[in-house]
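Extended Data, panel c. Modelled sequence:
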Amino acid sequence: MIQLRRSADRGHAEHGWLEARHSFSFSEYYDRRWMGYSNLRVINEDRVAPGTGFATHGHRDMEIITYPLSGTVRHQDSTGGSGLIRHGELQVMHAGSGIRHSEMNGSYSEPLHLLQIWIEPNEVGVKPGYEQSALDAETLSQGFVRAVAPANETGAEAAPFHIHADAGLSLAWPKAGSAIEQPLRTGRRHYLHLARGEVRLGEQTLSSGDAALIEGESVLALVAETDSELLLFDLP
């Protein structure tokens, strides 16, 4: 079964310095039908004005992934983690027993466009931490690549990031005209988010911001109509 979640049906917030689209209930956007999907709790698509951003604030017991689409994120946190994150890099933060951080637009002239993702952990009170790593564009153009895996998963060492949650994230950047057939793990739910581009999924076409909730399927088959970027979550 595949259920589509169209970009235009997401929550929308406009704060002047920030325009946000919420895939699930968040802040002032509330829809009890869309509180999350399994332990995937937040996918916010944020557009942040130059010289602004999310000032220092706190989190605990959440796995937080930052995926820049364009522009530069300037990160700082209470563990001493800091850095500039651009498109082609991924950031994972383990809030654990408590962390304070800021995510600011690192430019005073260019806007920032990013995805902020929250996944509920299966371990609480862990030591907070921060990781950042570059992605391999060439490999991602060939199909889905496991980028984030549960820390206790067999074979998880193949993924560059590990989280304290029963969830994984694979990424793909197919070129226009590319076909992908991705096996799906039996007994799991999957959530496909199209960060940008256009893909054909069966008889349906997905555009930037669209998503597919997938259950009971063994293979995900799609064709990229344009150069695209896809995130595929593997969930309990």
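The chain has a mean pLDDT of 95. This feature is highlighted in the accompanying rendering.
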